[in-house]
């Protein structure tokens, strides 16, 4: 068939679509997020943190990291040229904080504790559940060099998670220290403290490999330390091409967890629960973040007290030849001690050397909050929920502006991830209770209907008059249904003359419709007539019962 | 003198600055705005409106109005090209609503009542108090053709203003109707209903002139109807170049207010307060929004009841030859009647033909909330605070996407203006109460100090330990002062050994420092020692008294 020639179209209509990778939030999606952020803000505030809201737009120069090339800035941010300056949407809340800390350094209190909540933008390829605009919720302390500041952030993160409804033992805040990782690198011969730029590429590959240990397994990591690794799809990832000696040291660190895991399984079958050896080995399982075992071992007497202590010992052994590594272990020990003193024991805050954190700017302690309950993934397999927050110490970020090192530490909560976790635990967005709908029987008596909603609202009851075309009364009830309304009010000329209104209990009506026979439904016991003067009292009774 | 040659600089440090026209909000600036928006949201919610949060980024195509030219879109928005699409930051919350109403038209309830709060961006020349990112706070009803929807918006706006702390008689919601304005244009011969594109430029000039009546005066407006007007700086604004007959009709409308004003002044000196003529003329003063008179006349018996009725009569007289003008007057009358039935009388909602509203897309009723109390302007002169919110009916905005007319009406509150108004009325941002500061006397006993703040926080008291360098104790007290702290806690080795803490009442201390002599101050009655176990009770007592 010949293709029909398109007629020259009239002026083309614009598409009603969000840009690719962006989305809208409607109704309870907005209120659920707001309720969660309000609870977190209350915790941050109680810890002495002050709110800060920077503008969404920054100069590319101030944002850093992404510098303009000839034509336009690097990928990763949304940027544009404006009066010869490159501007960009912020990609996180930390870069603007560094700018603020430098800009107002003479006016801000020091240390400066601040929290910030708001959208950030990433110019990345969108995917399922991955959007180009999303919320972050950060708290940072600028100007405090002491690890007491890091400990405080960890405690506050635990409090924030509990405040929004994540129960204790359903989460764990894992703490590591970049200095410990660097110590391991040093011992393995791929970090030279006198020339940090040496082996930079190799260390990057090693860090990324350790970060993916859960997914790649020990053999995958070993391959990435050597020549490289071909994944299932056949794609090849280049390895660090380390010598045999270097690989051996690193694999000792990586592999320790696996060996302990295996021996642990044997022990469980043979040793008594109280065995000190079992406890020690259980720590190894913890090293891998293997929380399946943790849930069993967490019930052993003395286990909680022992865990972080034994981890510290093991780490100290591994990095003993590296002074900065030992410094990192000492910092971890101090964090654990400070938190213990405040009642944040290893049931909530765990030292875990597998925590790497992607960002290059961390210089000391790093943290990650992981939810330990199981959910079912898209393929129906059970898996742990995983990470919902992360952060750490970054002592060089403000230096970019001022030339002076300013110690800083902080945490960022992934708002959408945490909301998803709450939904998975049944604390998610509930459909917002809809308004009482006053229907319109006589178009000419709109003023009467408006007066009714006015009375209801004055009593604090969410209420509205139907404002669509009132001709078809069925549409009005369909509308009330779509709004999830608890009550519909009906007043025709007849009721009006007698000073009465019909009150239709839609909550009860829905229950009857779902359970009772058609005959019972037809008798409509969920609708009755009351004097207009009793309107508020009647509606309130239904709302309280519903 | 010879200019010294600059040395080739080392790598230049980035400037720690917001981009031109952008700003940061710190501490109580954030909490004050949030508190105000929460109160407004509660009112919107009670009226049955649902929250909506769209993405900050839209396609330029969906935003409309600003279409891309060859190189980049028109001025007014921040826009950039992305994968061959032009994207832009939203410049208001109405354009995204129109897109949402079209995109989800099959799923949204109809009518769809929604509220939205958030930043918008304008690529305009920044000025004092004028920023390129600012908050809007909107409520709109989409899909309701009835003026009952407009009336509801007006009532809700009044409730919202009172909810945030603007008292009755300190504000007025002015209502006009574009159809009335068009009726006047029609009568004046510069609007031909059968060919609306005719005289479009002339009408634009006339509308802008009427909108500026307060500033230009009657003669200024008259000049703009004719050849044009030269302002004080010598700049010439081209006029509408209307014929004498057209000018006469329009000036009759514009000038009526002035004549009535003048006669009113005479009447005030000669006539009794109860004179019906005085009342009628007072309406004329109201027409001009001359609220100096209103405050006198508002106390006359019967005045409130009369005002909107008489205004309606006068308007009906002016547009009697225009059917659409008469339709507009009838709509105004219906709005006033509906609002009266709900108790929103002309003490709060006033029909005022001087309201024009800039945006071209309004098609029916237009509203403006004006604050009527006086403030002192930057030159020390008293002036009325002025407009804080505006809106109206726009029946063609969704049509751009779907081809079908969708009636819509709504209002937008200028968040920064309203916050400034609250500040002017003394309800502004108060310095946030700072945290209790636990000072650090012995660096080694950080765990003890952390335990103290832990106890205070667990009791719901905002508290923190000093995390800066503790060496200089004076700095710790200066920090507490900068944080606006109510209490400082001090515990040295001596107190610790005895299980005691020093509690320093900084609120009382500041009062003493401000009023008492140096000798009295030195006796420090605002600091005392209590057992550690009484810490929470002692602090709470100070907070309750402060």
Automatic annotation (TrEMBL), chains A, B:
Pfam families: HGTP_anticodon (PF03129), tRNA-synt_His (PF13393). InterPro entries: aa-tRNA-synth_II (IPR006195), aa-tRNA-synth_II/BPL/LPL (IPR045864), Anticodon-bd (IPR004154), Anticodon-bd_dom_sf (IPR036621), His-tRNA-ligase (IPR015807), HisRS-like_core (IPR041715), HisRS/HisZ (IPR004516), HisRS_anticodon (IPR033656). L-histidine binds at residues 92-94, 122, 136, 140, 357, 361-362. Its main location: cytoplasm. It comes from the Bacteria. Residues 111-433 form the Aminoacyl-transfer RNA synthetases class-II family profile domain. Residues 1-22 are annotated as: Disordered. One of its GO terms (cellular component) is cytoplasm. The keyword Metal-binding does not apply. It is found in: Cytoplasm. Keywords: Aminoacyl-tRNA synthetase, ATP-binding, Cytoplasm, Ligase, Nucleotide-binding, Protein biosynthesis. One of its GO terms (molecular function) is histidine-tRNA ligase activity. Its EC number is 6.1.1.21. One of its GO terms (biological process) is histidyl-tRNA aminoacylation. It catalyses: tRNA(His) + L-histidine + ATP = L-histidyl-tRNA(His) + AMP + diphosphate + H(+). It is an enzyme of class 6 (ligase). Homodimer. Belongs to the class-II aminoacyl-tRNA synthetase family. PANTHER family: HISTIDINE--TRNA LIGASE, HISTIDYL-TRNA SYNTHETASE. This is Histidine--tRNA ligase.
């Amino acid at each position: 068939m010949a293709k029909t020639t398109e007629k020259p179209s009239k002026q083309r209509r614009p598409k009603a679509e969000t840009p690719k990778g962006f989305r809208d939030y409607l109704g309870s999606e907005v209120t659920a997020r707001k309720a969660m952020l309000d609870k977190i803000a209350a915790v941050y505030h109680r810890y002495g943190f002050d709110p800060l809201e920077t503008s969404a737009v920054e100069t590319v120069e101030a944002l850093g990291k992404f510098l303009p090339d000839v034509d336009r800035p690097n990928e990763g941010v949304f940027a544009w040229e404006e009066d010869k300056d490159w501007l960009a949407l912020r990609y996180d809340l930390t870069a603007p904080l560094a700018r603020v800390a430098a800009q107002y350094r003479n006016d801000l209190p020091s240390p400066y504790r601040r929290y910030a909540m708001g959208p950030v933008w990433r110019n990345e390829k969108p995917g399922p559940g991955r959007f180009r605009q999303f919320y972050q919720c950060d708290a940072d302390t600028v100007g405090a060099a002491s690890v007491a500041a890091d400990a405080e952030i960890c405690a506050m993160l635990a409090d924030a998670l509990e405040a929004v409804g994540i129960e204790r033992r359903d989460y764990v805040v894992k703490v590591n220290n970049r200095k410990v990782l660097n110590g391991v690198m040093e011992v393995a011969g791929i970090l030279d403290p006198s020339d940090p730029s040496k082996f930079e590429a190799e260390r990057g590959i090693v860090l990324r490999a350790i970060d993916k240990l859960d997914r790649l397994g020990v053999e995958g990591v070993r391959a990435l330390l050597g020549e490289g690794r071909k994944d299932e799809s056949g794609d090849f990832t280049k390895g660090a091409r380390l010598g045999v000696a270097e690989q051996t040291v690193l694999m000792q660190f990586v592999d320790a967890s696996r060996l302990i895991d295996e021996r642990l399984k044997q022990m469980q079958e043979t040793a008594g629960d109280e065995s000190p050896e079992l406890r020690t080995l259980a720590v190894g399982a913890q090293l891998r973040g293997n929380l399946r075992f943790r849930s069993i071992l967490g019930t052993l007497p003395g286990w909680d007290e022992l865990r972080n202590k034994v981890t510290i010992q093991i780490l100290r052994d591994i990095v003993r030849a590296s002074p900065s590594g030992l410094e990192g272990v000492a910092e971890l020990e101090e964090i654990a001690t400070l938190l213990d003193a405040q009642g944040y024991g290893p049931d909530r805050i765990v030292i875990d050397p597998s925590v790497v954190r992607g960002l290059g700017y961390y210089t000391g302690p790093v943290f990650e909050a992981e939810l330990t309950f199981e959910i079912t993934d898209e393929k129906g397999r059970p898996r742990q929920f995983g990470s919902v927050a992360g952060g750490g110490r970054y002592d060089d970020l403000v230096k970019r502006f001022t030339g002076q090192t300013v110690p800083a530490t902080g945490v960022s909560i992934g708002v959408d991830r945490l909301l998803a976790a709450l939904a998975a635990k049944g604390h998610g967005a509930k459909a917002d209770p809809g308004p009482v709908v006053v229907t319109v029987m006589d178009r000419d008596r709109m003023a009467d209907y408006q007066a009714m909603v006015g009375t209801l609202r004055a009593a604090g009851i969410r209420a509205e008059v139907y404002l669509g075309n009132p001709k078809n009364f069925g549409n009005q009830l369909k509308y009330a249904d779509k709004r999830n309304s608890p009550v519909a009010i009906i007043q025709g000329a007849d009721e009006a003359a007698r000073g009465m209104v019909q009150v239709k209990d839609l909550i009860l009506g829905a229950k009857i419709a779902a359970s009772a026979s058609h005959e019972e439904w037809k008798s409509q016991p969920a609708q009755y007539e009351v004097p207009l003067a009793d309107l508020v009292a009647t509606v309130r009774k239904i709302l309280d019962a519903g």
